[in-house]
Amino acid sequence: MIYRLLLFTVFFSLFCFKGISNRCNENGYAGVHTEQYPTGFNKDLSPIRDTVYLKNWVFFNRKDSVLNQATVPGTVQSDLIKSGIIENPATGNNEPRIQNIGRQFWVYRTIINLDKVKFKEPLLVFEGIDTHADILIDGIKVAESHNMFVKKEVSIPLAFRDGNHTLEVRFFPAERYDSLSFLKDKIGRIPDKRTFSRKAGYHYGWDWGPKVVTVGLWKPVYLIENSMPRISSLRLRTLFADKNGNSVLECNSRIQGSKKGVFDFQLVIGELNIDTTFSFNYAGEDVLIKFPIKVSGGRLWWPNGMGDQILYSSEARIKENGLIRFRLSRDFGIRTITLNRQNDSIGSSFEFSCNGAPFFARGANYIPGEIFLPLTGLQKQKQMLIMCRQSGFNMIRVWGGGVYESDRFYQLCDSLGLVVWQDFMFACYFYPASQDFLDNVKEEAIQQIERISQFTSLGLWCGNNEVDEAWKNWGYQKALEYSANDSIEQAKRHYALFDELLPQMVKNYDQHTPYVSSSPLHGWGRKESLTAGDQHYWGVWWGEQPFEIFRDKTGRFASEYGFQAYPDARTINDWCQGVWPLSDSDQLLAAHQKHSRGREIISNTIKQYYKQPESFDQMVYLSQIIQKDALTVAIESHRLSSPKCSGTLFWQLNDCWPVTSWSVLDYYLRPKAAWYFLKRLFAPIMVGEGGSTQTPIPMLVSDYDLDSCFVSITGYSQASQVTVFDRLANVREREPIVLTAVSDLSKFLNKMGTTPDFLIIQIDSAYLAKDKGSAVQDYRSDAVFPISKVTSRNGQPLYRIEPRLTVKEKVICNLSPTEKGNHDAKIFCSIAGSGSTYTIELWSETMIPDLILSLDNRTIDYSCSDNQILLNGRRTIQIKLEIEIGKEELRNNLLFRSWYINNGKPVPIVWRE
Q1: How many of the other CB atoms lie within 10 Å of CB of 279?
Q2: CA–CA distance, 169 with 188 (Å, rounded to integer)
Q3: Which of the chain's ends, N or C, has fewer CB atoms near its CB within 10 Å?
């Protein structure tokens, strides 16, 4: 394919246009599956053209030729499950029983009627072929595929341009291809054969996912007219922007088609009063058109929490003799995103800025939402990302062992202010680098860079996930008995792929987005991981270190860390098909736990911090509590070490099937306990535990400048108030004090003179400075503070931070592990509502931490406005059910559980009307 560059330099002035719509519409509350989505999100992304989607597909095994109806997009496995021929691996222990499906030869077939299409020059487009296949028309091979991440375009030969023709896609098993490639490899010893196929790595199994090596047409197949020039990409990137609305954009558009001649290219941005047209001489080959645009009066796009997500609508058109022959629409935002990696006194920074304003990145690692990718539900994906926004996320990392996500995913991130850290699809192993392999990856990189860089939310390209660390630190070279020459050869491959090819493609096709070669550059056991670049700290979990070690291992940017927990009991009930109760050693549980020591690590950690659970229900509950504890200590440590640490992205956000994993939202988006704390941990102003492991202290961190505020502390012994301090023990005279971005609050505690059971720290800000080089959202007084649990390994009590009711109040509890499970208490409860929506009011005469609401009937689905709470006084929770039930049935099924009360068994409820 020949690429030529036409450079048009067009500068012009524009008048300000004020008709701008905010694309964000945030309704509902975290954890509840609302139907509120950003306005404008459902805009059709497809270009305006004649597109004929191919239907009536069948598939068959080449051994028996039995025809099956095929769903396209789809996979062989998902269609066989739908027809009842094989079992779904999401339930029971079915995964081993379907392995042979992906190892067989399959064929997809349909009929093309080109008389009905009437295209002058029909182009056959395969958006995604999974993965190795020959494409045949009437038995004649016209193309082949070896990359599921590459769109395949096939020009139909003249001999087939009328009448009916048989189109076949004959698949070759990926694992067999991998084995043959492995045998031909020059070194012949790579840790995993899967790396020879450009296929989603997680399909071969991961420590949170099953092995299901899918095969099929996983994206749409269609015909388009190829003769007329068309716009295949439209990118409007920001070269410069200032606070006054002045900016310079670059329009970057690829034109494809075979018809030669003189055409007009028109770009219209109505909201900015931009309408420019110029003629170009098209030679019938791919061409890239680039030109700058000067904008006055444009408003900036910001990450969530820093300002609005302003998106403008643009439309590019191809005209011939004044008639529009093709047009493509894209929404875009005006913004710059940079990554600061400067050497400093510590090592080297890793800090993102938007529009010149540095920001602390808050978010998680995202994996594909399904085993069978075509089944990925847009509605589910929407809800998940909206929940992320509502919980204070401003960044999502698309992990390198999955797939490049759909246009809809990135469009939603644009609307919600979620900056995308985009890995290229390489993870955890060594990769071959033959010329054929590099050429294959080059085509993949060009297509994906041009496609994804159309979206405003893209903030970073990363060459791979942990490939550099695997090469240097995981012992593969020794285990595989590499010779010195073997190591040199593989090092050359590594460099050629991640330090030469991929950065060169980013430079050529998206020079406005930063690139890093690998995440991380230094393993968690290396001292450099604490001083330079991003960090994957797995001393907690893999190293089985105590949670408190996070305080001493903050690093410069935490891009991976986490702890496993069992999913919601309803999810376990689904995959176990109603088998209950279970034991921790049950084979149905083992089938959905992919870490070799996962259950053991969870159990051991529970024993270290809590008591041995007496039932499986308690095990599920406590696993979620310790996951919440681990993430809390980590995120608080990262935020409180700002600006040394500039971001925290935990592992992992979601699941691709029902499983015990590191996720905080399980496969059905049912939140684990940790999820409810993220809104508190990611709040603009957070009080948490800072300092060192030996001497933790309460500290405050703020996204805003706190030029003037009041701080007070109230100490309690259970329900009895002990003393009140305001500012520096000035109870009667409230004088505002100045707090820095990260402030030590221990001076207040030093004047307490006693150790009450718990404290309330109150921050009442009189003024929040907003001029930090960026716009900020208005401070919301009903936001919730974060939570932290801190206990020492020898059982000595340290401070424990819990949320109270509003952003103004923080509770610090001084409870030791030996006290857990010994309190007697009751919950007073009343219920209002009917059908599927109820309001539950709770209160207690005793403080109850870690209180979780659930239903005894595990077949009733529900969602809560909040959960995993500290009950101290009155609290209201809204619950929405998937079905309508009566108030009495809800009352009979309602359960509350806290490890501090009744040893983790259901807490007694006293009903009040």
Answers
A1: 10
A2: 30
A3: C
Are the CB atoms for 520 and 536 separated by under 8 Å? Answer: yes
Q: How far is CA 842 from the centre of its chain?
A: 34
Angstrom distance (rounded) from CA 308 to CA 23: 8
Say yes or no to pLDDT of 586 above 90: no
Structure tokens at 15: 């008048």
For residue 479, what are the contacts with CB-CB under 8 A and spacing of at least 6?
none
- Residue 106: phi and psi, rounded to 5, are -120, 155
Q: Which residues does residue 555 pair with via DSSP β-bridges, in sequence order?
A: none
Render pLDDT for 190-201 as a digit per residue (tens, 0 to 9). Answer: 889 999 999 999
Beta-carbon count within 10 A of 900 CB: 21
Q: What pTM did the predictor assign? A: 0.90
Beta bridge partners of 172: 132
Whole-Å CA distances, 278 to 236, 374, 454, 842: 17, 40, 22, 67
Tens of pLDDT along 644-690?
999 999 999 999 999 999 999 999 999 999 999 898 889 877 878 77
The residue assigned the tokens 């590499």 is 482
What's the whole-number mean pLDDT along residues 247-268?
A: 95
Q: In what order do the strands lie in the sheet with 312-320?
A: 274-282, 261-269, 312-320, 323-332
**Which among 540, 595, 560, 586 has a CA at the least distance from the CA of 209?**
595
Describe the crossing of helices 502-509 and 435-452 by its angle, rounded to 10 degrees.
Answer: 40
Contacts of 485 (CB under 8 A, 6+ apart): none
Q: Tokens 């010195």 label which residue?
A: 484
What number is the average pLDDT over the span 285-298?
Answer: 92
The pair of structure tokens assigned to 210 is: 């099953």
Decide if pLDDT at 641 tops 80. Answer: yes
Give the H/E segment covering residue 685.
Answer: strand 685-691
Sign of CA dihedral 575, 577, 582, 586: negative
Tokens 């964000």 -> residue: 24
Among 474, 478, 517, CA closest to 494: 517
* Residue 899 and residue 821 in contact, taking contact as beta carbons nearer than 8 Å: yes
* Cβ atoms of 268 and 358 closer than 8 Å: no
What's phi and psi for 362, nearest 5 deg? -130, 120
Q: What percent of the chain has pLDDT over 90?
A: 63
Kindly list the distances between the CA atom of residue 138 and the CA atoms of 31, 161, 165, 223, in Å, as whole numbers in the listed order.
Answer: 53, 12, 6, 17
Tell whether omega for the bond before 376 is within 30 degrees of 0, i.e. cis: no
